Amino acid sequence: MPFIAALIAALALSACSADAASQDRVVRAAVASDLRFAFPEIIELVQEEHPDIDVRVTYGSSGQFMTQILNGAPFDLYLSADQAYPATVVDEGLASEGQLFRYARGRLVVWDPQGTLATPTIDDARNANTIAVANPRHAPYGRAAMEALISSGLLSVLEDRLVFGENVSQTAEFAQSGAADIALIALSLVISGPLANTGTWTEIPQDLFEPLDQGGVVLDEAQDFTAAQSVRDVLLSPRGQEILARYGFED
Amino acid sequence: MDIDALWLTLRLAALTTVILIALAIPIAAWLAFHRRFYTPVLEAIVALPLVLPPTVLGYYLLVALGSQSPLGQWWTSTFGSPLAFSFNGLLIASVISSLPFAVHPLLTAFTSVPTKLLQASTTLGAGWPRTIVKVALPLSRSGLATSAVLAFAHTVGEFGVILMVGGNIPGQTRTLSIDVYDSVQAFDYSSAASTSAFLLVFSLLVLTTTYTLNYRSSVPRQLASSYPQPVTVIQ
Amino acid sequence: MIIQLHGRRHLLDVDLDIDIEEFTSHVLFGPSGSGKTTLLRVLAGLDPLDEGELRVDGKVWTQGSAIKVPARKRDIGLLFQDHALFPNMSVEENVAYGIPRAKRGDKRGIIQWALTQARAQGFTSRPVASLSGGEAQRIAFARALARQPRMLLLDEPLSALDTPTRESLRNDLRLLIHTSGIPTISVTHDRTEALVLADQVVVLINGTVHQIAHPSTVFEQPADAQVAAAVGVETASAGSIVRRTNGLAEVEVEGARVFAPEPSFSTNGVLVCVRAEDIALAKEQSVTSQRNQLMGVVTRISPHGSLMRVDIDAGWNIASFITRTALDELELRQGSTVVAAFKAPSVHLIPHD
């Protein structure tokens, strides 16, 4: 059985490499999708200031991360798109209250990926066949988008035309691929990064929804607690905040 | 392409295959040579991951492995790290979801071993472990190889269960198929394209190998067909 | 080894008590579908019973559907119709397969001994797949012997072979069984095979044992009409005894008179059995020791192996085997008149209503 022999050889090799990789101080970060383009720059900054720290990121919806963390997912640092989920993690005893922090306020935009409208507004949604929104059950940007639709009196009209992304970046992907005509997503995804020159967008007035104050927490079970705190400190430092500002976050 | 994800995927698939082959041999032998009235129920249970939505499988695994479950708690207290969203949890999930791919080719191969040879082995004093190792397995070589190849390939291609049970943690649970999903969400189409192309070529190679192996089946057909005999053999 | 089998399985329904050590070679003889192979499989532990039990030396081996002593612990050597050699192993690995753990130290010696016993030393280096039917069957015999089992079971051991191989292996097989000295039960539906192999024949018809006797007894004095049919007594007609004198019985069969040794039973309704080999033909009646001389007309002449079979209507149908030379000398053809002559002791009477 040469195939089985090859498998066993592969396993033996993999055991060696697993040992070699564990030299660095690893921080496993669960990061809300609105930071998908901004956070890589934060990581560059971390590497500049702490070359021994290896940040491994998973992007997703804030609510899904909370569920995973409550089920024992091995994360060290949790950056949510709201402040309620990190607070729940503290309530469930997986982090201490002192470790909670707020790092930015997010902004919501109406995005027309085709660029047919010079200044798309939330009212233009009336003319769209399909509107992409993040899943409000576990994505804070989705919740904010729904609140904005309700405040504008549009939800009852548009209810049948909504499609829900698993998280805010998948929502953008829906619109970018042409599956949806317009999307209600985070400003941070369209102001800079790969989508910066795609289509047109207008910010949705912040009085139409609960403010998207974004918070995070360092988890008690962190493999390397101080390394995780260092990453948080870089994020909150003036240079970190400057990066976030460039991606459209307010402080 | 993400080398970490490739490496993780290969490690996961290799371990899953080794564990599955070790499990599939006794399971397939039991199903093939020890037929009873309840055997179809066991066969159905083994085949279940084929038809069950990955989300259903993922949900049950999450409940079974999560830190709230007795198994999850026992694992955490014994090994110090949780089972869900870890490589070991992923390994358990892969073994379960790829089980039918390992058992079925072997089961088919076992049932085509001439009954007479198995009976000859028993009357020569061999118990069923020896009969399987010395007679049934050597005559089922192509079935065994197909089992191993399919178990490996299916693990490489598994997505739904892995996403649910493993999350998407780089270096621990982000396999190639998850990496494609993640790249698409990050608008990193070039990475998605290269990983997808790799998986496409890999799957094509695997299937070609499997069909070639099936073609050169090692059980002599005339032996198998000339002796229609009752199925129940090993006591 | 005392075998006591009282039970049923499918069509098989037997009460059999035999000591297989009394004679080295037992043959289970009967037409196809009589349950012989089933009986052998029950003995081997491959099949259970529907009902009843099998005891060997007083120990329960099978009780109803429960196999109490599994096949692998019965210490038997089973030879299948077609060798059933393991195609993935060499000849020597095949022979070594059943050698019990305790004797593995002398594996080489045992393999050589078994191959020599089976007269199969010549082709051990060849792959199993390239062996001829006869060669493979010798290796299979050696494999069964290498275990040095307490009993050998041979399931139609020659039936899968072509005719010349079968004939040459038949005589060898008798020798192999006797030199091994291991009590053997062979199954066959072939009369010649039974005659050659058996020291004792067990006749099985429709699942029941009809006769257990020395082969010549079974063939010359079948216990009943079914055995007569099974062993192939060509002439068997109903008649009735009209007189018993001086150890002779005078029987009327369809108007003709036939003399036979006086039977031990008292009923007068009988079946008159004469084997075709025992009937001579002549042109006319003559004074010989052949007490029965019946005039008849030839109804049919057909080849029977190297002999010719002549069917004669003498009021009842009589069949005779004669040589081609004799046929030519007698100038027989269909419609010829002929005398069928046979001795009184060649006639075997079976009670018949």
Summed up:
The complex is a heterotrimer of chains A (251), B (235) and C (353). By secondary structure, chain B is an all-alpha fold.
Written account of the structure:
The complex is a heterotrimer of chains A (251), B (235) and C (353). Chain A is of the alpha/beta class and 251 residues long. Helix content of chain A is 39%, strand content 22%. Chain A has ten helices and ten strands. In chain A, helix 2 crosses helix 9, helix 2 runs antiparallel to helix 10 and helix 3 packs parallel to helix 4. Chain A starts with a helix and ends in a 5-residue tail after the last helix. Chain C has 353 residues and is of the alpha+beta class. In chain C, the strands form four sheets. In chain C, strands 7-8-9-3-10-11 form a six-stranded mixed sheet, sandwiched between helices. In chain C, strands 2-1-4-5-6 form a five-stranded antiparallel sheet, covered by helices on one side. Chain C is globular.
The name CATH uses for the topology of the largest domain in chain A is: D-Maltodextrin-Binding Protein, domain 2
How many domain units of chain A? Answer: 2
What's the CATH first level of the largest domain in chain C? Alpha Beta
The tally of strands of chain A reads 10
Shape of chain A: globular
> Please, how many helices of chain C?
9
SSE-based structural type of chain A:
alpha/beta
Average pLDDT level of chain A: 89
List keywords for this structure.
heterotrimer, A: 251 residues, D-Maltodextrin-Binding Protein, domain 2, 2 domains, 5-stranded mixed sheet, B: 235 residues, MetI-like fold, 0% strand
Task: Walk me through the topology.
The complex is a heterotrimer of chains A (251), B (235) and C (353).
Chain A (H helix, E strand, L loop, with lengths): L1 H20 L3 E8 L6 H11 L3 E8 L1 H9 L6 E3 L4 H8 L8 E7 L1 E5 L18 E4 L5 H12 L3 H4 L3 E4 L2 H9 L5 E5 H4 L9 E4 L8 E7 L6 H12 L1 H9 L5
Parallel strand pairs in A: 1-2, 1-3, 6-7, 6-8
Antiparallel strand pairs in A: 3-10, 4-10, 5-8, 5-9
Chain B lengths: L2 H31 L5 H13 L2 H12 L4 H10 L7 H25 L3 H9 L4 H9 L4 H17 L2 H7 L9 H10 L3 H27 L5 H6 L9
Helix pairs in contact in B: 1-5, 1-8, 2-5, 3-9, 5-8, 5-9, 6-7, 8-11, 10-11
Chain C lengths: L1 E8 L2 E8 L5 E5 L6 H9 L6 E6 L2 E5 L2 E2 L8 E4 L11 H6 L10 H11 L15 H14 L4 E5 L7 H18 L3 E5 L2 H7 L2 E6 L2 E6 L1 H6 L4 H7 L3 E11 L2 E6 L2 E6 L7 E6 L5 E3 L9 E13 L2 E7 L3 E6 L1 H7 L6 E6 L5 E4 L2
Helix pairs in contact in C: 3-4
